[in-house]
Write a structure and sequence with these properties.
The chain is an alpha/beta fold. It contains six helices and eight strands; from the N terminus they run βαβαβαββαβαβαβ.
């Protein structure tokens, strides 16, 4: 049986992209799911409210605007799911991303699963070249570490902040001064002996 899922999308001044971010998740949600959008600015909230009026699974969560870690914590406090998916309001997941992101949780020893960021930048620019080099290099590293984890080796795998899932029971909160909430959550889960897996088919376009 699929776990009850809470998708938390943090968004700040992203009225043009938060709609597509929500829409990408909607057709993929298992039963008993929710999408919580944590945002402080009126422009983004107005868009979220339009979706909430059409889709009961969507709701806005007030963001006190004290930084990304606080926004994540506010979302975690409001979340009701057994598994949480974290993503951002300026990216969009692939149409088949959620199922592979949840599948590893059939193993009770798995505490988190990282998605696979895919760069949308054109390769023929300097920024695009380096973005593809970075995302492809990290993809290969996560693949290797995931294979080692499946062999029973203790290999730490850092989740991608663009898209990852985890059991919220393993994470009480993120320190307000954390520079990277994805790194903090990954380390806390690993420190408790839970496995972190990689879902290469859980693509998120950035």
């Amino acid at each position: 049986m699929a776990p009850k899922l809470s998708v938390i999308i943090t968004a700040f001044r992203e009225p043009d992209t938060v709609g597509p971010a929500i829409e990408a998740f909607l057709p993929q949600l298992p039963a008993e799911s929710e999408i919580l959008v944590v945002s402080p600015d009126p422009q983004t909230i107005a868009v979220v409210d339009q979706y909430a009026a059409r889709y009961p699974v969507v709701r806005h969560v007030a963001d006190p605007q004290r930084g990304k870690p606080t926004a994540v914590n506010v979302g975690l406090e409001a979340a009701e799911g057994d598994v949480v998916v974290l993503s951002d309001g300026d990216v969009a997941v692939a149409e088949d991303a959620v199922a592979p992101l949840l599948a590893p949780f059939d193993d009770p020893k798995v505490g988190a699963v990282s998605g696979h960021p895919v760069s949308l930048n054109p390769r023929d620019t300097v920024l695009g070249y380096w973005s593809h080099l970075l995302t492809n290099g990290i993809h290969r590293m996560r693949l290797a570490r995931d294979r080692a984890t499946r062999r029973g080796e203790a290999r730490f795998l850092l989740c991608s902040g663009y898209l990852f899932s985890f059991r919220p029971a393993l994470v009480d909160c993120v320190p307000a001064d954390a520079l990277a909430e994805d790194a903090v959550i990954s380390h806390r889960i690993a420190q408790q002996g839970a496995r972190i897996r990689y879902a290469p088919n859980a693509r998120v376009f950035v």
